Amino acid sequence: xxxxxIIRENPKLVKEKSLxxxxxxxxxxxxELDKSFRELQQQCDDARAVKNKATEQIAKASPxxx
Length: 66
Hints:
- This protein is mainly alpha-helical and about 70 residues long.
- It is built from 3 helices and no strands.
- The chain has helices at about 5-10, 10-20, 25-60.
């Protein structure tokens, strides 16, 4: 298995080496999917941060505010 970081940094090299071994890899599709994955991961992290902040504020709130 190839580390995605290597594919990101050297897409042409990965494509050339894979073709040299007789394996066809759609590097562009891999990079597109990786970009989508990283964007979704960022959205999840942002949502988790909002949830954690709300949880923290609820914990600090007085019983009347809850």
